[in-house]
Specification:
By secondary structure, the protein is an alpha+beta fold. It folds into 2 domains: about 15-300, 2-methylcitrate dehydratase PrpD (Orthogonal Bundle), CATH 1.10.4100.10; about 310-435, 2-methylcitrate dehydratase PrpD (60s Ribosomal Protein L30, Chain: A), CATH 3.30.1330.120. It is built from 20 helices and 6 strands. The chain has helices at about 5-10, 20-30, 35-55, 60-75, 95-105, 120-140, 150-170, 175-180, 185-200, 205-215, 230-250, 270, 310-325, 345-350, 360-365, 370-380, 395-400, 445-460, 465-475, 485-490; strands at about 115, 300, 335-345, 405-410, 420-425, 430-435. The strands form 2 sheets. A 4-stranded mixed beta sheet has the order 4-3-5-6. Strand 5 and strand 6 form a beta hairpin. Helix 9 (about 185-200) packs parallel to helix 11 (about 230-250) and helix 16 packs across helix 17. The longest helix is centred in the first third of the chain and has 21 residues, at about 35-55. The protein is globular. This is Cis-aconitate decarboxylase. One of its GO terms (molecular function) is lyase activity. Belongs to the PrpD family. Pfam families: MmgE_PrpD_C, MmgE_PrpD_N.
């Protein structure tokens, strides 16, 4: 039906609440008692993984550049919120603290990602929620009391965010948005943060709708950031900051866009689906489909490798070849490799199948399937040391990169992250490996493996007592009376993992 000019210029009206209002009504209604125990337990392990990546990322070179730059225009002492891993004298405003702490979590491609709708939830939620907790405690103490955020409060708000982000993503066909050039997590992220922070602040449905509207109008993120820029590390931080701003403005009475997801003219789903070639172009019902039945928190995956998610099947293929053909893939025999072909689906190809070029930066290397494959072949691991500055210009790596090509193949099977690697040797022999999903997705890292990862990542930057206290507090979050205890443990200076 043709809409008149007047109709096109006016907000959408509905007889029944659309997905925006349904979501905004759900957020204040959900209680921790309604969340299954297994989801709560998984959420605590997800949070522990996020804290590990935060501390590991606090003093990476690009993180230090970001901190020094922000401190130059917002000096320490200007707010109530800590920059974690930098000491107790680093308090700045909640928006900038959320930005920097998020940048740390995204600092080394070690953080979580969602298998259905890719975003890095911890880099969105942990910084914004802890910033709010500190800010609220400071503001209330100035009035003669002190607002306390309990561990239960933090856990529930995080679960709300874990649920919202992927649902918004699925309304835009999940990873398909990467193929159109958007950085998916920075598009899906602002409403997840707005919802989680709104839950923590106790906002009502009308305020939450305002928070969503203001958060969503700030959503953005260009995927060209992956080609070597420091901005890639910070883009989820922009989303964390913007979602937090939306919630704070809404609490103050500032109105946001109504029905922001489904509004037909300039609405969130309408705009971010343009040109995606899908019919229908977006799926608004996915935002509230099976709430409290299909828990999207379960789809938050933790990474075993320090690289972009689409490179993980690449690493898995190399590992299979190294195990099956141990002699052929010995270090001394890598010169005999004539060519490497990596086949992958459309989303992975557009995200990680680009030609890596020398010289590169750590972020460019971590995003490139062909570079990551060479790293696993040479070093037999893909962890932070592989992307230290001195490791990025090695001849043995680039010799293999130059022999590698990535090919799009959408007929590799039913797995969302299916990839196939074929290696040809100088004598004409070939070796092939194929996976349908990445390790970390199928199989996912168990809770026990997440704890092992936490301990491995932090063993050189935390003393045993501090590490143990953080671990016990996070895994027992429902018994924590005041999350200030966690904030105090995250605040002291940590050394650089690349030192």
């Amino acid at each position: 039906m043709t809409r008149t000019t007047a109709e096109a210029a006016s907000p959408s009206s509905e007889k029944a609440p659309g997905p925006t209002k349904q979501l905004c009504n759900w957020i204040p209604s959900i209680s921790l008692d309604q969340v299954p125990d297994e989801v709560q337990t998984r959420a605590k392990h997800i949070l522990l993984d996020g804290i590990a990546t935060l501390l590991v990322g606090a003093h990476l070179p690009w993180s230090e550049t970001a901190v020094r730059t922000v401190f130059s225009f917002e000096p320490p002492g200007s707010g109530a919120c800590n920059v974690f891993g930098w000491g107790s004298e680093t308090k700045i405003t909640p928006l900038q603290a959320a930005l920097l702490n998020s940048t740390f979590i995204q600092g080394f491609e070690l953080d979580d990602w969602h298998s259905e709708a890719p975003l890095h939830s911890n880099s969105l939620l942990i910084p914004s929620l802890l910033a709010v907790a500190q800010h609220e405690a400071s503001v209330s103490s100035n009035s003669g009391g002190r607002h306390i955020t309990s561990g239960k409060d933090l856990l529930l708000a995080a679960i709300v965010g874990y649920e919202i982000g992927p649902r918004v993503g699925l309304a835009l066909y999940g990873p398909n948005i990467l193929s159109t050039g958007w950085h998916s997590g920075t598009v899906f992220g602002p409403p997840a943060v707005a919802g989680a922070v709104s839950k923590l602040l106790g906002l009502n449905p009308a305020q939450i709708e305002d928070a969503m509207g203001t958060a969503c109008t700030q959503a953005c993120g260009l995927m060209s950031a992956q080609f070597g820029s420091d901005a890639k590390r910070m883009q989820h931080g922009f989303a964390a900051r913007n979602g937090l701003m939306g919630a704070l403005l809404a609490r103050g009475g500032y109105s946001g866009i109504k029905n922001v997801f489904e509004e037909p003219y300039g609405g969130f789903l309408e705009q971010f689906s343009k040109g995606n070639g899908k019919t229908p172009s977006f799926l608004p019902d996915e935002i509230v489909k099976n709430l409290e039945v299909d828990w999207k928190t379960k789809g938050v995956n933790m990474k075993p490798y320090a690289s972009m998610a689409a490179t993980h099947p690449t690493v898995d293929c190399v590992r299979i070849l190294q195990e099956r053909h141990s002699e052929r893939f010995k270090d001394s025999n890598l010169d005999e490799i004539k060519s490497i072909t990596l086949e992958m689906g459309s989303d992975a190809f557009h995200h990680g199948g680009f030609q890596a070029t020398r010289p590169t930066t750590a972020v460019g290397a971590q995003m490139a399937c062909m570079y990551v494959a060479a790293t696993q072949l040479v070093d037999r691991q893909v962890l932070p040391p592989q992307f230290a500055k001195q490791s990025l210009d090695r001849n043995e790596i680039w010799s293999l990169v130059d022999k590698t090509r990535c090919v799009q193949n959408d007929n590799l099977g039913d797995g969302k992250f299916a990839q196939r690697m074929t290696v040809e040797f100088a004598d004409g022999e070939t070796a092939t490996a194929e996976v349908q999903n990445a390790r970390g997705v199928d199989p996912e890292l168990s809770n026990e493996e997440v704890v092992t990862k936490w301990r491995d990542l932090t063993k050189d930057i935390l003393d045993e007592e501090r590490r143990k206290k953080i671990e016990e507090l996070v895994l027992g979050l429902e018994t924590c009376e005041d999350v200030d205890a966690l904030i105090e443990l995250l605040t002291p200076v940590v050394p650089s993992v690349l030192a």
